[in-house]
Amino acid sequence: MGTTRLLYSAASSRPSQITVKEFANALSKVWRPANSLPRGQAVQIGLAISGGVDSMALASLCSRLSAADFPVQLDPHTSGRSYAASIRLRAFVVDHSARSGSATEAQAVSRLLEKQGISAQVLKIEWPEDPASKPNFESLARKYRFRALGKACRDWGTSSLFLAHHADDQAETVMMRLAAGHRSKGLTGIKYHSEIPECYGLHGIHESGGIDHPSMGTYLPLRKRGDLRDITNSIGSSSSATTFDHSVKSMVLDTSCDQEGLDWKPQLPVERGGVRVYRPLLDFSKERLIATCRANNIEWFEDHTNTDRTLTRRNAIRHLFAGHSLPAALTKPALLRMAGKMQDREAQRQDLVSSWLTRCQVTMLDLLTGTATVRFAALDKVKESRVLCEADLRRTAAELLKRILMLITPNEHVELSSLHGAVAHIFPEIVSREPPRHVSGFTVCGVYFQRPRDNCRGEASPAPDPPCKPQWYLSRQPYAAHAGQTFALAFGPADGAWSPWRLFDGRYWFRLRNAHSVVLLVRPVRKDDWSDLRDLRASSTARTRLDERAPGAVRWTLPAIACLEADGTERVVALPTLGIALPGFQAVADSTWEIRYKKIETDGLICRRSR
After folding, report:
1. CA of 391: how far to CAs of 155, 208, 413, 416, 544, in Å?
2. Are 37 and 96 spatial neighbours (Cβ–Cβ below 8 Å)?
3. What CA–CA distance (Å, rounded) separates 609 from 191?
4. Who contacts 227 (Cβ-Cβ below 8 Å, separation ≥6)?
5. Confidence class of residue 468 from pLDDT cuts 50, 70 and 90?
6. Which top CATH class is 5-204+274-345?
7. CA-CA distance, 285 to 171, in Å (whole number)?
8. Spatial separation of the C-alpha atoms in residues 233 and 556, rounded to whole Å
9. Is the pLDDT of residue 94 over 90?
């Protein structure tokens, strides 16, 4: 961490520079402005700039693109509209504060950017402890760096962050994954675009914020979103349990529809948006990035820790490429070709999963309780066709299961390797020729699967699915004993101001306006809360709603709002997703809340009539 970085401004080189038109073509393949952007409004793009040759080349190309004197059509679906002239750039320079002189260096990088006409902002990382004492410094630096970048993008009002990864980075990544034993999907390498990493749970950054800022993004809302009203409820103090029929009525997937696509009744708003990272230089070699900087007299800083082959695995791989003759199959061009083939294969797999998804019947999706009823597609004829080998068939079935799981799971990620057992339960037709053993329930990735009944009679099934493919009822896995404190969110007194949005249990975004002196908690309903819920008996509507929407153990997976008393005890005052507030709590009578469901992907889901 005590290294110095030298400023470079080199002479000519043989590799050709990247032209603005080349860059625009590459950019249009991975990014395009949102259709929701009002005409005439500038497209805002954030640039992650370290000061190295890669990121300085990115900055130069973006600057020249925004000043291009020829029409650049970044959106092939918008005829005759040029975005280049309305691009606004802001470079974010991260000062890791990990070594002496880092602040001075960050300011020097900012000055180089301003020479190109790019507004620059230095983001200083505040370490809780001395970074030199951290054995996992690199991973922590990555986390803090992306969180700083994500917050800067959100605060500036953009969801597009460009990174300067290039083809050499791609080849090094594939080589490292080969050495680590990765196969198939792992060899696709670096993605051209993805959600911003290391920012889980940060509202407006990680897969959220699009409701508040609909034009802040490049990805459209889901195909059919329905009513996006916020559910805003007051915690009442009436003499009987209060319900909010205007907000909760019909907040469940309507199964009377025949058209494709989920038919949304007024449910909880579903989050969308979030910051995404884009890598428009991934098809260009580092040599061409250097040539681009040289041809345009762009200065850059060189970090000589990148040449220390003992420091990181990537540096060691970089040294192999630079100083050794490798077998033809391990050269950069060969690795890039392999990554391209793996990307094509993975895209075909995802297309196949999407086609299978349309054969799944989702007859209920209730966001108020986080539950769904699903009849999965039958895959026996796919197996008989021998289009896929058994390993690929199981993997593709796991991808299909993952798409459904993400509707309900509280987990940030679902790893395919954790789904082997679940695939056998749900798709026994592809893993065994013997009659499947009846399994009434199981848990995977935080989701509890139940078979409430073998529903074959009178159920319409689209040919060629077999009539007895069972339905599954999906709900959040019951919490472990004494898990309430682990998941609890505390909202202190705030003089009536709205709290920031906070993610509860990976499923619900909450914010509260606590107008009083008590602390309000959002936590799971517990069995010992039932005495607090006894007043539900006074309201048949509230009792019926709880019984119908959250039968059995499902009610113990619901979020509750509890009042933290002075003696440390907790009293439940509301079941917010069901719109139920309990009586007799004057101290919180003026407090309000808003709830949204996590971002989910519903494209391809089919609503089937349940007869």
Report:
1. 45, 35, 22, 12, 47
2. no
3. 38
4. 264, 265, 266, 267
5. low
6. alpha beta
7. 10
8. 21
9. yes
Classify strands 371-375 and 361-366 as parallel, antiparallel or unpaired. Answer: antiparallel
Q: Are strands 87-95 and 119-124 parallel, antiparallel or unpaired?
A: parallel
The token duo for 32 is 């395009």
Query: In angstroms, rounded to a whole number, what is the distance separating the alpha carbons of residues 361 and 462?
Result: 9
Residue 160 identity = S
Q: How much of the chain exceeds pLDDT 70, in percent? A: 76
Q: Which two tokens stand for residue 196?
A: 């911003």
- Tokens at 90, concatenated: 């802001």
Tokens of 521: 């908690």
pLDDT at 260: 46
Count Cβ atoms within 10 A of the Cβ of residue 464 and give its class: 0-12 exposed, 13-18 middle, 19 or more buried: exposed
Residues in the chain: 611
The answer to whether 503 and 203 are in contact (CB under 8 A) is yes
Query: How much of the chain is helix, strand and coil, in % rounded to 5?
Result: 35, 20, 45
Cα 357 to Cα 352: distance, rounded to the nearest angstrom: 9
Q: Which residue has the higher pLDDT, 220 or 71?
A: 71
DSSP single-letter state for residue 536: G
Query: Across residues 166-192, what is the average pLDDT?
Result: 90
User: Cβ(473)–Cβ(371) under 8 Å?
Assistant: yes
Q: pLDDT for 417-432, tens place per residue?
A: 999 999 999 999 888 6
Q: How far apart are CA 341 and CA 329, in angstroms?
A: 14
- Nearest in space to 465 (alpha carbons), one of 547, 400, 373, 378: 378
The predicted model scores a pTM of 0.86
Q: What is the secondary structure of 411-436 as a DSSP string?
A: SS---GGGGHHHHHHH-GGGT-SSPP
Q: Which residues pair with 364 in a beta bridge?
A: 373
Which stretch of 137-151, 274-288, 317-331 has the lowest confidence by average pLDDT? Answer: 317-331
Q: How would DSSP label each residue in 265-298? A: -S-S-B-----EEE-TTTTS-HHHHHHHHHHTT-
Cα(568)–Cα(555) distance, integer angstroms: 24
The span from the CA of 36 to the CA of 273, in Å, is 12
Phi/psi for 6 (5° steps) reads -100, 145
Residue 413, CB half-sphere, CA atoms under 13 Å: how many?
8
Residue 515 reports pLDDT greater than 90: no
Dist. CA 354–CA 396, nearest whole Å: 10
* CATH 3.40.50.620 domain span(s) along the chain: 5-204+274-345
The structure tokens 């679940």 sit at: 422
For residue 134, is it left (φ>0), alpha (ψ between -120 and 50) or beta?
A: beta
